[in-house]
Amino acid sequence: MRKHLKVLVGLVLVLGLVAAACGDDAVETTTTMAPETTTTTAAPTTTTEAPTTTEAPTTTGAPAEPLLVWADETRVPVIEAVAAEFEAATGVPVEIELVGFGDIRANMVQQAPLGEGADVFIGAHDWIGELVVNGVVEPIDLGARATEFFNVALEAFSYDGQRYGLPYAIEAIGLFRNTDLVPDAPATFEDLLAVCDALGDTVTQCLALPAGGDAYHHYPFVASAGGYIFAWDGTSYDPTDVGLDSEGAIAGFEFFDGLVADGYIDPAVDYGTMTNLFFNNQAAFMWTGPWALPDVKAAVEAGTLSGYATSPLPDILGNTAVPFVGVQGFMVNAFSEQKALAQTFVLDYIATVDVMTQLYEVGLRAPAHIDAFNAVAADPDVQAFGESASAGNPMPNIPEMASVWDALGTAVQEIYNQTSDAATALTTAAETVRAAIAG
Q: Is pLDDT larger for residue 161 or for residue 368?
C-alpha cells in the first residue's frame, strides 16, 4: 500500500448511555445527523457476543511493511505513543500521517480502492453509511469486549447488523451558563426563561444559540416531544419512515417558534456571535457542545468571562431534552493488505483505559469506553455532557441523511424569519426529504 508524507509515529456517571454531536475541533461533530425513535435512556447494558481474541503477529525475514494511520492534529500525540508500543511488541513500524479531520472521509473513499489511503483511520460514526456503500470500511468484531463501551457508541457504529468502528469519544450539545449571572442550572425551559425574565436588559442576549439554518443545534426541538427524522427499528434506520412532520416534531417546533416570537432567541445570533457574547459576559446561557470548552476556559483565564458551568439541556415541554449524539472512533480500511495487523492495533493497543483517557484529555469529549469515562467522571463537564448524551439520539449514519440537512435547515430558518408556521415548515421539509430519497 503506497504511503504519503508521514509523521512517524479508557464513577460511571449515573446516566445511561444506551441510546437511542460540527466540523473540526471548532465543531467537530460531523456532517450528518438524526434521531432514533425509541431508545434514549438507562445505564449501559451488556452485549453478549463471542469473545474476540487478537494476537500480535510476529515478523520474520523481510522487514515488516509499516502500518499507516491517519489522524488529525489533536490525536496524533496520543497515537504516537501507542505506535511506539506496538512496534516494540510486534516489530511492525507504524507511520502516522497528519490529515485534517474534515478531509479523512473523502480521501479514504477516493484512495482506498486504489490501494492507497490508511490502514487505520479515525472518523465519525455518521460517515459509516457512505464508507460501507463504497466498500471502504472493514467490520470490527469487539466480541465480549463490547461490554466495555456505552451502547450508544456501539449502536452509532453499527450498520446493517455489523459494527464498523471502535468508538473512543461521545459528544452532544449541552448548556453553558455564566455562573455569576446564573448560579444554578435550570432544570426546565420554564426555569431558564424565568432567569431571562429576571435578567432583563442586563445582558445583551440571555439565551444564545446559533440561529439561521442550523439543523444540528435545533434538533432537540424536533426530538424532545417525540419527533424523529428516520424511524429506528432496533438495528438500523428506516429511510422510508420520515418523521419530520410527526406530531411530536411539530409540537417541539411550535415551542421553538414561540421562543422566537417572544424574543427569547435572536435570529441575528450566529455561532460566532453566540460565543463572543458568552465569552464577554453578555449572554447568560450558551447552547452548544464540548468543542467550545477550550475557548470557554481561555476566556475565563483571560478574565473576559467571569465563570462558567455546564449542564444538560433543560427539559422541553415537560420532556427530557434530546440532542444529537456524535461518536468518533477508529476504523479499518477494507482494502488494506494488513487488516489483521490493523485490527490488532485498534483492539489491543487503542482500546485500553489509558489510551481512551488520553484521547479524552486532548479532545475533551466524554470517553465512549466505560472505565475511561469513570476515570475522568469527576470532571463536571464530563458529567454534564455525558448526561446530555445519555438522553440523545445518535446521528443517523445512513446515506439518506444527506437529504435532511438543507431541508431541516430551511425549516429552522423559516421559523427564525417568521415566514412559516411550525407545521407548514416541517411538512415541507419532510416532503422534500421523501422526494429526494425516492428520486
A: 368
Question: Which amino acid does the sequence have at 433?
Answer: V
Backbone angles phi, psi at 425, to 5 degrees: -60, -45
Q: CA dihedral in degrees (413, 414, 417, 420; nearest 10)?
A: -170
| Sign of the alpha-carbon dihedral angle for 262, 263, 265, 267 | positive
| pLDDT confidence tier of residue 363, bands split at 50, 70 and 90 | confident
Measured distance CA(409)–CA(207) in Å, rounded: 20
pLDDT (mean) for 15-41: 36
Closest to 404 measured CA to CA, from 286, 282, 277, 237: 237
> Taking each helix axis from N to C terminus, what angle separates 293-302 and 271-279, rounded to the nearest 10 degrees?
30
Q: What is the DSSP string of 25-79?
A: TTS-S-S-----SS---SSPPP---PPP---PPP--SSPPPPEEEEE-TTTHHHH
Q: Residue 310 CA to chain centroid, in angstroms?
A: 17
Give the whole-angstrom CA distance, residue 409 versus residue 197: 28
- Strands ordered across the beta sheet of 308-311: 205-208, 283-288, 174-178, 308-311
State residue 5's pLDDT score. Answer: 32
d(CA 310, CA 17): 18
Cα separation of 332 and 339, whole Å?
7
Q: What is the rounded CA–CA span in Å between residue 414 and residue 411?
A: 5
Please name which of 429, 439, 380 lies closest in space to residue 219, comparing C-alpha atoms: 429
- Nearby residues of 242 by Cβ (< 8 Å), 6 or more positions away: 229, 230, 430, 433, 434, 437
List Cα–Cα distances, 253 to 209, 219, 261, 407, 414, in angstroms. 15, 10, 12, 14, 11
- d(CA 99, CA 121) in angstroms, rounded, equals 10
Nearest CA among 83, 130, 77, 82 for reference residue 107: 130
Please, what is the average pLDDT of the chain? 87
Q: Is 100 exposed, middle or buried (0-12, 13-18, 19+ CB in 10 A)?
A: exposed
- Alpha-carbon distances, residue 194 vs 97, 206, 256, 427 (angstroms): 51, 11, 16, 32
Largest Cα separation within the chain, whole Å, is 75
Let me know: does 96 contact 83? Beta carbons within 8 Å. yes
Burial of 269 per CB tally in 10 Å (0-12, 13-18, 19+): buried
Question: Stretch 102-113: mean pLDDT, rounded?
Answer: 94
